[in-house]
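Async update (no meeting this week)

Hi team, since we skipped the sync, here's where things stand on the single-chain job. The sequence we agreed to prioritize is pasted below, unchanged from the tracker. I ran it this morning and attached the output directly underneath so nobody has to dig for it. Comments welcome in thread, and please keep replies under the output.
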Amino acid sequence: MHVTPLIWIVTIAVTIAFFVYEFFAHVRKPHEPTIGESARWSAFYIALALLFGVGIGVVSGWDFGGQYFAGYLTEKVLSVDNLFVFLLLMSAFAVPKAFQQKVLMIGIIIALVLRGAFIAVGATLIENYSWVFYLFGALLLVLAWRQAFGSHDSDPSDNRAMRFLRRRLPITDGYHGDRLTVKKDGRRFVTPMLLTIVAISLIDVVFAVDSIPAIYGLTSEAYLVFTANAFALMGLRQLFFLIGGLLQRLVYLSQGLAVILGFIGVKLVFHALHVNELPFVNGGHPVEWIPEIPIWFSLAFIGATIAVAAVASLRKTRKDADAEVTAADTSARR
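Output:
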């Protein structure tokens, strides 16, 4: 896939323009978005992402189009997983509804910048060192195990970094509008708003470590990696307000993500064996009998996994809700 510097410049400029528009049109004035507003903008950004993928397929071929769609789908699901942690942070820091948009917007912009840096580093490593596929594959398999069996009960607002900041910085008890700092009695204080943004930034680093190796397992084209990440993050703010209640019902999303990350990890290891140059693996020669997983299978597998996780989650929560109603009725009759 041939991407000229001009295409890169235009793509980055348009991406920045979208976020600038978002800030001045929706975020600058603190307010809680309505369901209708969130639904319209979420649909717009998803439609835009799909239209872009169709354009990639028409212009550059459907092999690249399939890589983009697989990458976008994976990044979108990982972004929804981000929303779980964002929801925990908003609750832990008691961020007022009217100010949550600003926190989310800043967090999303930081996430895009961090992922852009990771994408550049990843592209350089892949271009110069084929053994990096082994590293990415092993990392994803470890992350898949942690996603499936690790503890998800830790409080992101009470980690070491947050405790360090609370000990070192003067912090106000409450919020002062959407300001990050405030001056009281001649002294500058930090508000909980700033702490929330710092916490989200730290979480963004962790999720970038997950997402970039994952998408490089689906495409080695840095342009597709960047655009899939950009479109996955666009509309994430609106999606937060649209499906905030639904997030609590997606109880099997972590397991679904673990399966996807594990699958991509295996795919990366297979690809690493195909381009192997390590002298202690097969004498430094490619392992040709290992199958290459085609992109159409990756796309179908990821889509099916997401669908199964979502349906199973909704059935489980509905069953639990019915059981609670039955138990309450039984208790009332007694």
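Quick observations from my side:
The first strand starts at residue 181 and ends at 184.
The first helix runs from residue 5 to 27.
Reply here if anything looks off.
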